[in-house]
Every structure is written in C-alpha cells, then in structure tokens.
Amino acid sequence: MIGIVGAGAFGTALAVTLARAGHEVRLWGRDAAAMTAARTVRAVPRLPDVPLSDGIMPTGDAADLSDCGTILLSVPMQSLATTLPALGLRPAHAVAACKGVDLTTLEGPTRVIARFWPDATPAILSGPSFAADIARGLPTALSLGCADASVGGRLQAALSTPTLRLYRTTDVAGVELGGALKNVVAIACGAAIGAGLGESARAALMTRGMAEIMRLATALGARRETLMGLSGLGDLALTCASPASRNFALGHALGRGETPPDATTEGTATAEAALRLGATHGVELPVTAATVGLVAGRLGVEDAVRALLERDLTTE
Ligand SMILES: NC(=O)C1=CN([C@@H]2O[C@H](COP(=O)(O)OP(=O)(O)OC[C@H]3O[C@@H](n4cnc5c(N)ncnc54)[C@H](OP(=O)(O)O)[C@@H]3O)[C@@H](O)[C@H]2O)C=CC1
Ligand SMILES: O=C(CO)COP(=O)(O)O
After folding, report:
1. 31 in ligand 1 pocket by Cβ < 6 Å?
2. Which whole-number Å values give the CA distances from 62 to 59, 65, 74, 230, in the listed order?
3. So what's the ipTM on this one?
4. How many Å lie between the centroid of ligand 1 and the Cα of residue 192?
5. Which of 61, 114, 212, 220 is such that its CA lies 20 to 30 A from the CA of 283?
6. Tens of pLDDT, residues 200-214
7. Judging by DSSP bridges, how do beta strands 25-28 and 93-96 pair with one another?
8. Which residue's CA is minimally distant from atom 6 of ligand 2?
9. Does 39 show up as a binding residue in the annotation?
10. How many whole angstroms separate alpha carbon 273 and alpha carbon 293?
11. 28 CB less than 6 Å from ligand 1?
C-alpha cells in the first residue's frame, strides 16, 4: 500500500497512475471536508476532470496512511517542513515529489525529510511531467534519486508503471536541484516571451540558465550527468517551452505587465533560495538575480534584460 501526502494536481496524478498499475493508494489532503467529499464524488478539486478509481482512498486523516511503508510527498516545498511533523507518520521510505529549496533552511526536500523522519530512507522523484499528462496515462519518464542504491532500486520497481518510466540514480542533490532550479529559468523564459523578446532570447535564457544550474548544483555536490538528464535539462525543456507550466505562466504575465494567476509557483521562493546559496558558495547567478528582481517588482523586463546584456563579455 502506497500513501500520498498532498491531494493537489501532482499527488493525485501519481495516485491515479499507481492505482492503474494495481497499487492500493491512500491519498491524504489537508482539507478533510474536501477529502470526504472526494470519496463520493471520486475526484479532487485540484484535478476535477480526473476520476479516482476504486483503488484510491481519499482521506483527511493521516492515520489512514500509518500502514503505508512508502509515502510520496507532494505538497508545495515551502510547506513540507510544517506538514511532516503534523502527520504523525513513521514510514520506512519517504519519496519527495516536490520541487524546490526550503527558503528558511536552504535544504532540499530529502534533508527536510531526514530532519523530521530520521528513520525513513528519503528519496526524490523529479523530471518533466505535467500532472495532467501522468493522469491521462501519457508516456512520461522521471528520475528517482536515492542515496541507498538498493532501496532506490526497489522504489524504482515499485513506483514505475506501464506509462511512467523511472530512471534511478544515487545523485540525490542532482535530482533535487535540477527540478528546483529549472523553475527559476522557466519564469525568466515566460517573462521574455510575454514581453515579446522572441524565441532567440528564450533559447539564450534557457542555455545560460542551464549554465547557472550547472554551476550552482555542482558546487552543492550534484553530478553533471544527472543535471543533463530528466531532472535538469529534460524538465527545463518542458517548462521553459510550455504555457501549461505555472512558472512559465507567472513570468509570462509579468512580462505582459499583467497580474499573475493564483497558482503554485515553486520558482519564486527557489529563486531567492538559490541566490542565497550562490552567495554562500561564491557562484554567480545573473539570470536568477534578474528573475528575483522581476518577481519582487524591483526590475521591469527591460531593466532585467539590460542588466544581463551589459555584463562584462566572457567565455562560454
Ligand atoms: N502540477 C504538476 O504538473 C507538477 C507538480 N510538481 C510538484 O508537485 C508539488 C505540488 O504541486 P501541485 O500538486 O501541482 O500543486 P497544487 O497547487 O495542485 O496542490 C498543492 C497541494 O498542496 C496542498 N497545500 C498547499 N499549501 C499547503 C500547506 N501550507 N500545507 C499543507 N498542504 C498544502 C494543497 O492543499 P489544498 O488543496 O487544500 O490547498 C494541495 O493539496 C510542487 O512542488 C510541484 O512543483 C511536480 C511535477 C509536476
Ligand atoms: O514541474 C513541472 C513539470 O515537470 C510543472 O511545472 P509548473 O510547476 O511550472 O507547472
């Protein structure tokens, strides 16, 4: 039996594909009334058009997940540290499916898990995948990072489904940082497109953004080959190119001078966290700095572009 914490779009999509593959799934959401309603409506508010099969038990009571040896965590990154201790669970394996860096502690999801659930083996699941695609059973591939190779292998086998193919690695930092940092670049790309700066500008931002991801993540212990994989280059390609990305949509609205839609956008907090990490580790992050300024309203798109173009010429 698999437990999923967070009945948002992604947690629910994972529940649907795992149940379709034959798993019994307990899906916990913080809104107990909505989860009770979901038992009869057989859908959750964040993914209303996706029916929940009989193999999924929606619940607002975390105790219903106490028999689940593996728990997937799919709440927004900035709420992970408050969610975990409140659940009262002690799973053997805890797989983070959230993308970001905790702004208070600058920890990735597996470090947060280790802090609150020291007995659990932590892992991270990340890569290019829109919740709607996974829920529809469209082909998807993700990275599963687990420092314990044998647990990682077991999780890979358990969580892969006929349409969701997992690749495993022991490079937890690479999987975490690739998935977290690409959201920052997606905001920047959305702003460029929204402001009418063109496809060439987007390609330049993606490429230089990827250079920043490489610099910061390798300084923090990630391996280059992981960052060139699904949770890095792969997810960067998806989110920087698709209006379906909420991070891209946020940047797009800012680029057009409009009010951004109200949605989970992990890239805003992660951009700030990345700047702090960059300052500590002596890593220059010009695209990230411009994105932070843009999101905070300190810079307009034109100022941000000027700041990037006026930097000293350098080698690639
Ligand atoms: N959507 C996608 O396509 C993908 C998302 N992800 C990642 O999955 C994670 C979750 O995103 P997603 O499911 O899309 O987000 P949603 O906005 O769809 O849902 C967020 C979920 O987290 C809950 N939540 C929000 N704030 C808190 C809080 N403070 N404490 C506890 N629970 C909270 C929400 O509860 P409530 O409904 O009650 O507000 C909801 O169940 C993110 O890190 C995201 O980057 C990864 C890959 C794809
Ligand atoms: O991470 C995602 C796809 O891999 C989803 O991106 P958004 O959170 O920007 O919608």
Report:
1. yes
2. 7, 6, 14, 31
3. 0.98
4. 26
5. 114
6. 999 999 999 999 999
7. unpaired
8. 245
9. no
10. 13
11. no
